[in-house]
Amino acid sequence: MRALLVEDDEAVGDALCRALVGGGFRVQHVTSGSAALAAVAESEPDVVLLDMGLPDRDGLGVCRGIREISRVPILAVTGRGAVSARVSGLRSGADDYIVKPFLVEELLARIDAVLRRTRGLGVAPAVTAGDVEVDLARRAVSVAGEPVTLARKEFDLLAALARREGAVATRSELLDEVWGVADSGGERSLEAHIGSLRTKLGRREAVVTVRGVGYRLAR
C-alpha cells in the first residue's frame, strides 16, 4: 500500500512517515500543494494524508484539485479543529478528518476505515437490489442493465446502503460514513441526497425509509 503524505512541517512529517512505515505503508512525502497534485497525477497512491495548512496553496483547494483528477481516499490531517473547518474539508472532497494532536493508533485506524469504506473491502464486489446493481469495486451503478451516473456523494451513500445487504443504516451511521460527521445538522443534506438518488435511479422503492431510524436498500 502506498501513502502520499502532504505535510510541510519537517518534524511532523518525519514522525508521520515513521508511523506510516510502521503500519506497513510505502510513503511518498511532499511538502506543498503543487507537489501533491503532481504526485497524484503521476502515480495515484492508495491514500492521501493531506495537511490543510500548506505554504503554497490552501488545503481545501488542493483537496478539490485532487478530487478533480482522482477518487483516491483523502484523509485531512490538520490542527484546525472547529466544526466549520471539518465540514469545509469534507465538502471539498476529503473522506475523513483527523485533528492534531492524535495517537498513531487512531491515525492508522482511520486510514483503515477510509480504505474499507472507499474500496468496499470485505464485501461482494457487486450488490443487486431488484434490477439495480451497485459495483463497489468499479464505483459503477446500473438499472436494468443501463448505466446510471451518480455524483460522488450519491454513490458513497448508495454504497453504504449496499454494503449492509438489506439491513438498516441509521441516519447517524450514514452521516458518519459518507460525510464524516454524525450530528443532526447534516440530516437535511442526507435527505436531499436520498431524494436525488431515488430520482436518478428511477426507482423510489429501491431506497426504503425506516421511520425514526434511517434507510435500507430494498432486496
How would you describe what is shown here?
The protein has eight helices and twelve strands. With 219 residues, it is of the alpha/beta class. The strands form three sheets. It has a five-stranded parallel β-sheet, sandwiched between helices. A four-stranded antiparallel β-sheet has the order 6-7-8-9, with helices on one face. Strands 10-12-11 form a three-stranded antiparallel β-sheet. The mean pLDDT is 86.
Q: What's the topology here?
A:
Blueprint: E1 2-6, H1 10-22, E2 26-30, H2 33-42, E3 47-51, H3 59-69, E4 74-78, H4 83-91, E5 96-99, H5 104-119, E6 126-129, E7 132-135, E8 140-143, E9 146-148, H6 152-162, E10 169-170, H7 171-179, H8 187-201, E11 207-210, E12 214-217
Helix pairs in contact: 2-3, 6-7, 6-8
Mean pLDDT: 86
Strand percentage: 15-25%
Strand order of the largest sheet: 2-1-3-4-5
* C-alpha termini separation: 34 Å
User: What kind of assembly state do the chains in view correspond to?
Assistant: single chain
Task: Note poorly predicted spans.
Answer: none
In DSSP terms (H or I, runs of 4 or more residues), the helix count works out at: 8
Radius of gyration over all CA atoms, rounded: 18 Å
Q: Which class do the helix and strand fractions yield?
A: alpha/beta
The portion of residues assigned to helices is 40-55%
How would you describe the shape?
A: elongated
Largest sheet: 5 strands, parallel
Q: Can you count the beta strands?
A: 12
Descriptive keywords:
12 strands; alpha/beta; 8 helices; 219 residues; four-stranded antiparallel beta sheet
Q: In summary, what is this structure?
A:
This protein is of the alpha/beta class and 219 residues long. The protein has helices at 10-22, 33-42, 59-69, 83-91, 104-119, 152-162, 171-179, 187-201, and strands at 2-6, 26-30, 47-51, 74-78, 96-99, 126-129, 132-135, 140-143, 146-148, 169-170, 207-210, 214-217.
